[in-house]
Design goal:
The complex is a heterodimer of chains A (163) and B (438). Chain A is 20% helix and 39% strand. Chain A has three helices and six strands. In chain B, strand 18 (320-329) and strand 19 form a beta hairpin. Chain B is α+β, with helices and mostly antiparallel strands and 438 residues long. Chain B has helices at 30-41, 131-134, 165-169, 172-180, 201-208, 214-227, 277-301, 347-360, 368-381, 409-422; strands at residues 11-14, 19-23, 46-50, 59-65, 68-74, 80-84, 99-101, 104-106, 113-115, 146-150, 153-157, 186-188, 193-197, 244-249, 252-258, 302-308, 312-316, 320-329, 332-342, 390-392. In chain B, strands 12, 13, 14, 15, 16, 17, 18 and 19 form an eight-stranded antiparallel beta sheet that branches. In chain B, strands 6-5-4-7 form a four-stranded antiparallel beta sheet, with no helix packed on it. Chain B has a three-stranded antiparallel beta sheet with strand order 1-2-20, covered by helices on one side. Helix content of chain B is 27%, strand content 25%. The two termini of chain B are 20 Å apart. Chain B is built from ten helices and 20 strands. Classes of the chains: A alpha+beta (163), B alpha+beta (438). Chain A binds chain B through residues 43, 45-48, 52, 54-62, 66-67, 70-71, 73-74, 77, 79-82, 119, 121, 153-160, and chain B through 98, 189-198, 217, 219-220, 223-224, 227-228, 334, 338-339, 347, 350-351, 354-355, 357-359, 362-364, 366, 369-370, 372-374, 380.
Chain lengths: 163, 438
Amino acid sequence: MARDLTALRPCIEDFLYLEADLLDDWRIEEWFALFDEGATYEVPPTGESGETDPATSLFYIADDYVRLRERVVRLTKSEAHSEFPRSSQRHMISNVRILGAHGNVLDVTCNFVTYRAKRGVVDTYYGKHAYRIDCGSEPFKIKSKRSTLGMDMLYPGKLTIIV
Amino acid sequence: MDTILSTPQMVVEDRERNLFRVSRRAFTEESVLEAERRNIFDHCWLYLGHSSEIAGNCDYITRAVGGRELIFNRDRAGAVHAFLNTCPHRGAMVVREKKGNALSFRCFYHGWSFNVNGRFASRFDEGNYGKEHYSGGCADLAQVPRLECYRDFWFVNFDKNAVALADYLAGAKDYIDMVADQAEAMEIVGSGQQYVINANWKLLAENSVDAFHGFPVHNTYFDYLKNIGSLRMETNAGHFNARGMTDLGNGHAVIEYQSPWGRPIARWVPSWGEEKRPLVERLRQNLVQRFGEERGHRMAEYSRNMLIFPNLVINDIMAITVRTFTPDAPNKMTVSAWALGAAGEDAELRKLRLFNFLEFLGPGGFATPDDQEALENCQRGYKNMREVGWNDISKGMPRQGQPMNDDEEQMRCFWRQWRQRMEGRMEGSRVGGLVGVA
């Protein structure tokens, strides 16, 4: 691999910060527009080591593109009771690494901490995102996002926001 | 003031006036939780786990049940055990992993070791311990007083005088059969989901078999089904063509209704694609062959939400979930939920089953989080308890004949049993009445 992947990091970081901003501001439909058609979004079970597959093990979230769209549609409604009134969120990202490239598609990982506040309770979610991001055109497109929680169980109870 | 609202009792049923009320103190007071631990969790059969979770000899898992820390395992000969996970020496938890396979257990604190059948297995040099120490079992891992199984569902009871599990389950057995009979063997798929709800545990018991809240709370879920073309409502009757609610005895109850959603057992919906249709049709034919037209059709087509007193839910809906929950405080519980599927089922169907599970169920599903929100809102609403002190659970009381599935009779079954146990009126129970619960 001749390309210097670390040189691409500022662009990727910018893209991830944009994603975080959209989520922080509840611009959820614009957030969904970052995903390529056919993209997937997954949150695997907590406390599992090694590779897990939503076809054989029970995840918290395993959305194909259609269900991810529906998740976003749901979150725009006041009848999505768990997010009404809406919670306040802040998404923190660090340790961004580009692990490999397949043509224009990059394998990216980063650590995250996401805070969610509602009714005087602050929930903390932390873990690691693994993305496949197509950098072939502007804007970049997410082909898959998997958010592996670092907690050994889901202490905040709900997983209604996008971490 | 209405006399009901000034009674010292916590559960009041007035059949003449069709009123059923539960005091909100039952959800908030530490003394009530303490009494529940002694009167309910120390005497009822509590769900421990499924055979498939310890399928091989020497497999083990650790789990918190009824406020205890337990080891659920198979020994070298394949016999199933439930041990209290505490070293007889000085108390440390002997097994600290969530699951595994081991030929023996060893406490890391001082190195006391045990065979997987619980027998003390350390041999210390002479002079350390007397002969008596090795005999009589006082150095063995302590077994849970009672461990029994029905159709691969294992339960424990901390009361050695409890009635047999089969008698305790009463009418629930037939409905467990309808889950266990869906394949040659059923299994827990992967690991489960574990999450916290900041609400009293009884709120989830009620909610798990409550059809009344379905449309107001889960409107966005039904919208989702509509949007993807998966809402299949039969038109020949209202209320989902409801079969209604059945009192299964001993505080257990089930609601049964025609499903608007797809069911991996054998109810196809368009969003699964035409290519899966023949596969699902074959499953259905197979059910009819094995159980006859009526029962086969019912197993495939109808959904069932079942509560087994006090804290086991087996919901056979758009997937099968087995769910149990343990109080940590009056306003906090930990929930463990698993997906149950046919052992060795077709890989595509397994994938579909798990996909279907997540569309509704669990903390990231399109419905469960809104239930959690409702429960937590109730708990917060109870802050107004001194002025507004009672829950109303009267829906359907004047109705003649079988209750509807969106009545509240299933919760009344739960609360009558709760009252009876809290008042110490159960046979074989030596715990007396308690202060605050008349």
